[in-house]
Design a protein that fits this description.
The chain has 332 residues and is of the alpha/beta class. It has ten helices and eleven strands. The strands form two sheets. Strands 1, 6, 7, 8, 9, 10 and 11 form a seven-stranded mixed sheet that branches. Helix 1 runs antiparallel to helix 5 and helix 4 packs across helix 5. It binds iron/sulfur cluster.
Length: 332
């Protein structure tokens, strides 16, 4: 891939005061809660729980250098991932189901979360990458304000399933440097069946367009590390259940061919996928290659691909002290 490269990039970042104002606004959006497209309207501040099951205090399951992300996010030090518990989708095949739909995790105050961020910076991570944090936006922003004040300089990578509201994304403008959204499906019927999100397609597409308006194309520094921009992830599913062709066509219609896409082959039939015979298997090499070929024929050149043979590299077990098998020792 060949993203834009810049020697001197100075991000325009909000001040601590401005980030804290955004945190307060996010808190207002959580009572009644309309932080995400579910718009449950429960009073999260007083402890009521909506669809995602998240409480008033952020819960994370792990904070660690992650060596399985796309190369400009991983670098030599790993992406500084913060895995948030709970989720606003219920993907039957979720590889993080222990934390997204189970109850693994521990509560963190903004001060503690800021400490985790600074520890990841001290460990020489390439960025701070909150994973599925949208339902805990207020706590995340408050933590970022503290961490920036205490010397956090790393870019912020917002890793999301794409099921985001525009109102929430507005609060991230000027705070998030790199957006890393999924575009999971091209059919709402399929999105409902596998992820219980009947309006996923139009919602995620609008969200990705809004993200692109904020950060533009991917920009890397002279070390090849992402400092700004958008990477769209698309997980291929067995039998083309993800609608890969339609998704690529939509991207091609709405964005330039220079947009960065990550085509993922790592699908594994985990969790409740055995309730759906048609996706209760891995993606074949042929199926995956067809999607990669199509992206190439459509003219996309900034495309990350995976080796279908190494699909198990990224599957974590959050009940272990070290959730990833390579943890503590970066993979070759
Ligand atoms: S963040 Fe959770 S409680 Fe709030 S609207 Fe979304 S699913 Fe409902």
């Amino acid at each position: 891939m060949r993203p834009d490269s810049q020697l001197f990039y100075r991000p325009t970042r909000l001040s601590e005061k401005e980030i804290l104002e955004r945190a307060r606004e996010a808190r207002r959006l959580s009572s009644p809660c309309r932080l995400c497209p579910r718009r449950c309207r429960v009073d999260r501040v007083s402890g009521e729980k909506g669809y995602c099951g998240a409480g008033p205090v952020p819960t994370i399951a792990a904070a660690l250098p992650h060596f399985g992300e796309e190369p400009p996010l991983t670098g030599s030090g790993g992406a500084g991932t913060l895995f948030f518990s709970r989720c606003n989708m219920r993907c039957v095949y979720c590889q993080n189901h222990q934390i997204s739909q189970g109850f693994v995790g521990y509560e963190v105050s903004p001060a503690l979360l800021a400490r985790e961020m600074l520890a990841l910076q001290d460990a020489r991570c390439s960025n701070i990458e909150p994973v599925s944090p949208g339902h805990h936006l207020s706590g995340l922003l408050a933590a970022l304000a503290i961490a920036r004040r205490k010397g956090l300089t790393l870019p912020v990578v917002y890793n999301t399933n794409g099921y985001e509201s525009l109102e929430t994304l507005d609060l991230l403008d000027g705070i998030v440097d790199v957006y890393l959204p999924d575009l999971k499906y091209a059919s709402n019927e399929i999105a409902l069946r596998y992820s219980d999100a009947a309006d996923y397609v139009e919602t995620a597409r609008e969200a990705v367009l809004a993200m692109r308006r904020q950060v533009g194309n991917l920009v890397v520094d002279m070390r090849g590390l992402a400092i700004k921009g958008l990477i769209i992830r698309h997980l291929t599913l067995p039998g083309n259940a993800a609608g890969s062709e339609e998704t690529l066509a939509w991207i091609g219609e709405h964005m330039p061919r220079t947009v960065t896409i990550s085509l993922m082959a790592q699908y594994s039939p985990l969790y409740r996928s055995n309730r759906h015979a048609e996706i209760n298997r891995r993606v074949s090499e042929d199926e995956y290659d067809r999607v990669v070929d199509l992206a190439w024929r459509m003219g996309f050149r900034n495309v990350f691909v995976q080796d279908p043979a190494s699909q198990e590299v990224g599957i974590p077990d959050f009940e272990q002290e070290a959730p990833f098998h390579w943890q503590g020792e970066p993979p070759n």
